[in-house]
Amino acid sequence: MLEVKGLEAAYGASQVLFGVDLSIGAGEVVSLLGRNGMGKTTTVRSLLGLLPPRAGSITFERSAIAGLPAYRIARAGIGLVPEGRQIFPNLSVRENLVATARPPRTTSSGELWTLERLYRLFPRLAEREANMGNQLSGGEQQMLAVGRALMTNPRLLILDEATEGLAPLIRAEIWRVLAALKQAGQAILVIDKNVDALSRIADRHYILEKGRIVWSGTSPALHADTTLRGRYLGV
Q1: For a tag site, which of 31, 68, 162, 225 has the least CB within 10 Å?
Q2: How many CB atoms lie within 10 A of CB 176?
Q3: Cα end-to-end distance, the chain, whole Å
Q4: 56 Cβ contact partners less than 8 Å away, ≥ 6 residues apart
Q5: How far is C-alpha 207 from the geometric centre of its chain's CA atoms?
Q6: Residue 156 contacts residue 190 (beta carbons within 8 Å)
Q7: Domains, the chain, ranges and CATH?
């Protein structure tokens, strides 16, 4: 589904990514791990067209997307739950969801995302449907950010620090939703610091260190290698 080869990216003269390779298959959950400042968000920005790559290739659904504008990449079927939520504060929950809703680019055999289906996934959003974005708690805003991305009917969903700063009960709710999405066959790329939670849900993992992939492997391999986790993740 997604194939990244030799990706390099920079902010002006400061290069951040150095030959990143990664892939995500249909229905697969993959995590991108690493300490702060190692290039995880820069990788996401490059995938989404928010930062033009300096070199390398990005292929999504057999089409080259490196260097395309962000709106074209979004229309191709990549949805983002951004760090910091970035919901529309002066729109209601329903308006936030409807504003970004669109059918998938290609016909899918899976169930489409509608308000009704989304409210079944997040009953709390149904209860708060008429409330403005700035009237929601942080956890409710995060649910809304996830819901807004799903309403685009993405083939690939990317979550950048989706549980950062949330209360434990809300974090557990987000992980529950991700597990349900995986069960439904949704392909997901997730960035998060909770290695234990990621080990339970992700099929494979990549670790970034100073803009380079230094390790990739399965959840059992990541869980078993305490030296690796201590060296690169501090856990």
Answers
A1: 225
A2: 12
A3: 31
A4: 4, 5, 6, 7, 8, 19, 20, 66
A5: 15
A6: no
A7: 2-232 (3.40.50.300)
What are the structure tokens assigned to 187, written together? 């392909």
Q: For 161-214, write each residue's pLDDT tens digit.
A: 888 888 898 899 999 999 999 999 999 999 999 999 999 999 999 999 999 999
- Give residue 233's Cα distance to chain centre: 19
The Cα angle at residue 163 between residues 173 and 49, in degrees rounded to 5: 120
Tokens coding 81: 């739950």
Helical spans, DSSP H, in the chain: 40-47, 70-76, 93-100, 115-121, 123-127, 138-150, 168-183, 195-201, 219-224, 226-232
| Mean pLDDT score, 91-118 | 83
Chain-centroid distance of CA 128 in Å reads 24
Prediction pTM value: 0.92
Grouping H, G, I as helix, E, B as strand and the rest as coil, residue 82 is: coil
| Nearest CA-CA partner of 108 in 217, 27, 202 | 27
H or E segment at 2? strand 2-11
Confidence at residue 107, expressed as pLDDT on a 0 to 100 scale: 47
Structure confidence by residue, pLDDT tens digits, 67-88: 899 999 999 999 999 888 889 9
In this predicted structure, the answer to whether residue 106 has a pLDDT above a threshold of 80 is: no
Average pLDDT over residues 117-144: 94
**CA–CA dist 216, 213 (Å, integer):** 7
